[in-house]
Every structure is written in C-alpha cells, then in structure tokens.
From TrEMBL:
GO terms for molecular function: formyltetrahydrofolate deformylase activity. CDD domains: FMT_core_Formyl-FH4-Hydrolase_C (cd08648). Keywords: Hydrolase, One-carbon metabolism. Residues 33-210 form the Formyl transferase N-terminal domain. One of its GO terms (biological process) is one-carbon metabolic process. It comes from Photobacterium damselae subsp. damselae (Listonella damsela). The keyword Hydrolase applies. This is Formyltetrahydrofolate deformylase. Its EC number is 3.5.1.10. Pfam families: Formyl_trans_N. SUPFAM superfamilies: Formyltransferase. The gene is purU. The keyword Ubl conjugation does not apply.
Amino acid sequence: ELEGYFNDNTFLADLDQALPNGSRRRLINNDRKRIVIMVTKEAHCLGDILVKAFDGTLDVEIAAVVGNYDTLQNLTEKFDIPYHHVSHEGLSREEHEAQLLRTVQQYDPNYVVLAKYMRILTPNFVAAFPHKIINIHHSFLPAFIGAKPYQQAFERGVKIIGATAHFVTNDLDEGPIITQNVIPVDHTFSATEMAKSGRDVEKSVLSKALGLVLDDRVFVHGNRTVIL
C-alpha cells in the first residue's frame, strides 16, 4: 500500500523495470466503489446486497437500481436508493439496451451487478463495462448453462445444486468465475423445490463475489480469475 503524492506513469515505468518480463501490474485506488444493480423481478439477491450495504457488511455505494419491471421499486426505495424502471416492452433488444446503457452510465459505476437480471446483454453493453459486470447464475457452472438450470438439474437427477458468480462476457454464462458454492439435494426435490433451496446459495455467492471484487482481490487472467 502506497501513500503520498507521486507520478503514476513514472512509478509504473520504474516498476516495470524491476519486475520480470511479462509481468502484469495495475494501480488500485482505495476510494469506495460505486455500483449499479440491475434486476428483473426476484428480490432475494437484491435484498441481500441492500441490507449488507446498509449495515456495512459490504463497503459499497449503491448508486442506483435499474429494472425492466417495477416489481422491486418499493424495496429499493426503502433504502433511499433511486430506482429506474426501464421497460423492455414494445422495444427491440437494441433499443431497450440503449436506454439501459444511458441510465447506467450516468452514474459512472465501477461495477454493474446483475442481481437476477434475466435478460441476455448485447455485446455493445458488455463492451461498455469490460470485466466490470458481475452476474449470478443459478447453477454450478459449467453445468446447466442458459435458461431454466433448475429444471435441467431436476431432469438430470443431480445430487447437488449450486450457484456461480462470474464476470460477463459475450459467451453466455462462460465468463471468468469469481466464486461458487453448492448444497445437497436428493430425488425428493422437485425443480420448484430446488429453486427455492437455491435462493440462499445464490444470494450468498453473489455477495461473497461482490465483496472480493470490492476489496480488489480478484484478477482476471484469460478466462480465469486469481483470487488473492
């Protein structure tokens, strides 16, 4: 950790001279991070982040919540956080995302968190926030990519279900994994019961991943992450 005043470019040039060839380095600002959360209708992941930001468990500024439905507006506003309802109805995917992008970018977030946002983002949106969009997927990736993973898990007869937090890329549910966890299930679980049980895993995995990212402990290397 460095304190005081110095020229960033000069410091990095000196550091490059001292490090082995091929080394990667970056300067990390200790300022509090700002996020925008994107949601659809499910409340459990959003609610968990709101509470943890409120009580200080997560040291983060939630600049706004953006949803394609207004379902979670009342919950968000209980925490005095602005909510933007950007409906997708009657719009093409590109038109809707152009509105989303303008809404999110006005807050200049360090990260965008998809707290059960259930629409696939276009490459244009992803390119605006490279390795800055964090998604929670309700399966233990790489198993059950895409839609209805609990139904897929039920049909396959799995004995564990899980959740994965990862950075978003243009490859659906295949971005660098930040953290994962699982819980046991058995033959008595329906797909609906798996989904209910999985909610606690989803919210805990997303909050853990967000905490690691906010603490600057996550480094992307190719399609993998290194967690310090």
